[in-house]
## 1
Amino acid sequence: MPPHGETSGRTLARSASLAGAATLASRILGLVRDQVLAAFFGASDEMDAFIVAFRIPNLVRDLFAEGAMSAAFVPTFTRELTTRGKDDAWRLGSNVLNALLVVTGVLVTLGIIFARPIVSAYAGSYAAVPGKLELTIELTRLMLPFLTLAAIAAAIMGMLNSLHHFFVPALSPATFNVATIVCVLVLAPLMPAAHVPRIMAVAIGAIVGGGAQIAMQWRPLAREGFRYSGSLNFHDPALTRVLVLMGPGTIGLAATQVNLFINTLLATSQGTGAVSWLQYAFRLMYFPIGLFGVSIATAVLPAVSRHAAVNDSAAMRGTVARGLRLMLMLNVPATLGLLVLATPIVRLLFERGHFSPADTAATATALRWYAVGLVGYSAARIVSPVFYALGKSRVPVMVSVTSIATNIAASLALVRAMGFAGLALGTSIAAIGNGGALLWMLRRHLGGIEGRATFLAAVKIGVAALVMAAVAATVSRYSVAVVDGTSTAAQAVRLAGAIGCALAALAASAKLLHIEEFTEALGGLSSARDTI
């Protein structure tokens, strides 16, 4: 096990950078996928139906599989690996895979049988548009098996992360994006001839992509010595610990996904396009969350779990604090960048085919309000799993329930005043409250999280980010006079110029203010590049 300073400093940044580099590739492909979907379907009834249909298995996947897996399985697997060795860890891994197959298999079967009442309860207003509700139900039934595939992929990812493999697991979601893109480009044009809606090609791509995520991660896990066993022993104490933690783990990490689910539910009553605008905006906002928040959380959790296994509280404090400061260094500038450049980003990425200028304006508005909560989202992703490593599962459960209640109240109030954009702001308000409450509670449980150093770093980062945002806004405003035109190339040049100048200003400000986290991030990127 690396020494404390190494684990919490450059090694943490390197691990996060490996995950971040792979996540970047996946997110870029995700943007390409969204561009293809926007060009083919725009913000149409078909796209609205797909988003709602996929939200159901994706919500269960995010809560039960990915969220609960990271909170319950990774600390337990790491404890087995650290204290008892690989054989016992492999036994636990097989047990968890088999338990997931059984549980998700039952959920998928029930979901297929009861798809109509579930979708009708969730998106009953779709019945007002001929065929829209029926299409949503068909898509839901087709995509429900994605839940099982994603659950298995998440468990394999957890094992690989515990074994210090970050790049391939973080890259594996890219196969989902590739499968979706290929299926849309190849199958969508053929669907009308078979009297099947074109959007079915996207659903097929989701299932193919789910299987590909498993295939991509299986080989590195096998090289570590894992051999799958079909036995399932519910009396295994380690499996019992995982299952016991998964209940509160699901609730504790539920806030973001349940809030997004509620937003989609409320948006179904806001007319054609509202669900799609919010989805496109959230996907863009989730780019920095996945790149910076999730990748840092992926690196922090195994390290914290190892420290928790040997009761090293000082090392835990250091690791969490450095992870938070690294997240702030990356996400505060990202927040201000999205606020300033939302419209040119959306226009460049999506405004073509069936995606109109009106869709650009609506999506950019939602993106700005979502961006307000970016730091809150990322803080929760880093901090919440730490409570499970500490054995304090009730804390994130209580905070998550409070956050969901806050989101419901805020969204119901704001949607009346602001329309669909109020749903994005309500989610951001809940995210900030969720992240802030978790940080406050973790500070009490760990005896501090290097508060003075973290506050000082946050102030410096905020100043540097404001300078960056001012430069971005100025360059974006005046670049039209230098590079005129509405072509994709002209838009790309103007946006690249604004982002490039903004990053240069951020780097200069960070150097003048002696922001250590900026140097750590660059060092981590350099180490990750050499490793890759």
Note: The first helix runs from residue 4 to 8.
## 2
Amino acid sequence: MLAQGKNSLQIRGCYRVKKIGIILAGGKGKRIANFANPKVMLRVKNKTLVENHIQGLLEVFNVDVVILVINSEKKELTDHARSLKTKYGEKLIIVEGIGFKKNATKYGIDLIHAYKNLNNGDLYFYVMGDHFIDYDDLKPLKNEINEKINEFYSNVHEKMLIFIDTAPKCAKEASQSKVLIRNDEIMDHGKELENWNALETGLIIIKPEVLSKLEAKLDELRDFDTTNIVNMVKKELNDAVTFFDIKGTCWFGVNTFDDWMDGINNYVKYRLTLKETITICKAGKAGIFAHLLYKYIAAIITFIILKLNPRTRAESVSIATYVMAIPATIIAFFYPLLGAIIYLFLEILDSVDGTIARLKNTCNIGGGLLDSGAGVLRHTLIPLAIFIHYKLYILALAIALLQAMKYRLRWHMAEAGAHIRGFVARMLEKRKTKIIFGLTGDVIVTLILGALVLEYFGIIVTIPPLLPFYWKTISMSPIQLTAYFFAAIYAIMGFLDVIRLPKAALRIYRENIRRVRKNI
């Protein structure tokens, strides 16, 4: 038996109602699989839809326990569920099964009944895992919600409580379940309603007798959703379905990719905060200067861009950095300091497109290629234009060749890593920090910009003798020193990659030999 939670609902000061939260996350989610598999792994406020519901049910509705029903075929979700179990402990119960023959609602109810020891609650809070509800918006309504739940529990003729929205802001209306209300009573419910005055938010509360009736009806129903439960309560149990109006709280359901984009764009428009933007911007890996400073600037720019136009896509920013790299190179050749400032701006925009992609869960291979290509373009052309402006022709040529070799060798190393089982995973495990050390783009642009500022003030760098047999003091301009530094670092990096390739090749060879022997 489930323990009675200390936060359970008090009824008439004597009995504490046992409340069980149930998150239905057992569907396949094929319609948005390219961006999240399954779709309940989509993120808002830097939390997955699943975790958002767990936290909301515990904090806003004070349920005694949350049952997360998942499809065990979805490895990404099962791994995530295990991490959530570690975080929430006994407050979270994971129920796994294979739900490919049923939709998420039917599958979830079926599995709950397979675990009879869980079927002992007084109220069941069902929430659709592929819906987002901003529970922070519900916290000011907490007292009203508890009063409504108290009233619902006490009324023997009310068997189902639906949370609806008569003033939806974020949801795409066409694909959501509609509700028709007259005289404070739900008259009709369904996705195809022509006459309606509210949308269902994907959160319902039912009593145990409804759950028992559902178990008996499951095998008779092919498709199954909240509409079936509403009709069953009204027609077969001959009882009332009541509602609570959340009146404009930010929420949306995700049936298709268009639903997700409409919902998240509206969320960005109405609810996105600068603090949240900074958190998501800092989540991506970056060089030390970007991590400490530039990402804060990027977050502010991201926030302003999205508030002005919530529909801005990450790919649009990547294309802009691609296109701007050419005129920036021309400007850098004639006006190096101005070109370096534009170069820095483009580097900051590189964090902007990544932040938008993470905010909207649209990270994909195509966007990564655009971002990578724009980076190669600006990191190659703009520094060369500046070095050529200062007549450092030999160094510029050497840097161009070493830069080309670096990108080619790094591509080979990436290809090699993709073929070695566990190689990439082990590399990522070793580098848990969000900071990437090395000659990253932010370091390159900072060094060049700093050198040009020193050059502008006419400062000369004096280097004392470095070797016992070389006693001369060297004097050179800051930009010349920077060019020598880049050439030396690129040469060292290229040499290290060259000597690592044979090692990677041998590892791939051994992996292939092992696979062949296992299959014989």
Note: The chain has two domains: 15-162+201-246, 272-519.
